[in-house]
């Protein structure tokens, strides 16, 4: 797939910015002693609240915390480096889907804890999820990223 220079610029910028957001969120969780998703999971609302509350119980919270931090970091690294970016985008989409469903901004469901605004159905998780969908279907790592080394068009032919 070929892109115009503006398309390549903005797709790459989107990939790097989303990657930085995921990497930062993952690393800060890994590096913060005592960080836990327990409160977030136990306060979940909506149709999947029992699942999230189960993931926040004392027996599973260590696994939930580790998987959250590692998945966020992995998604961020793949997007920033431009290698396996589709997999990273899909990991990010899965994480954002869980975040959205744990605390959906739906009518009749009160916001749990402080909110970054008064949303009606659409919140920042859905916006970033859509952005990752764009990145999954319009990758740039094979042009501007480590993926360039795995692109068959860029391989030197020996005769």
Explained architecture:
Keywords: Membrane, Transmembrane, Transmembrane helix. The chain crosses the membrane at residues 60-81, 88-106, 126-150. This is DoxX subfamily. The protein has 159 residues and is mostly helical. It has one domain (5-154). 58% of the residues lie in helices and 0% in strands. The protein has 6 helices and no strands. It has helices at 5-31, 38-42, 49-55, 61-81, 85-102, 124-137. The two termini are 27 Å apart. Residues 155-159 have low confidence and may be disordered.
- Give the helix proportion (percent range): 55-70%
Number of helices: 6
Q: Radius of gyration, rounded?
A: 18 Å
**How do the helices and strands follow one another from N- to C-terminus?**
HHHHHH
- The N- to C-terminal Cα distance equals 27 Å
Biggest pleated-sheet summary: none
Q: How many domains in all? A: 1
* Structural class label: mainly alpha
Mean pLDDT: 89
Regions with little confidence, pLDDT below 50 for 5+ residues: 155-159
Inertia-based shape: globular
Query: Based on DSSP secondary structure assignment, what is the total number of beta strands?
Result: 0
* % residues in beta strands: under 5%
Organism: Phaeodactylibacter xiamenensis
Transmembrane segments: 60-81, 88-106, 126-150
Keywords: Membrane, Transmembrane, Transmembrane helix
Protein name: DoxX subfamily
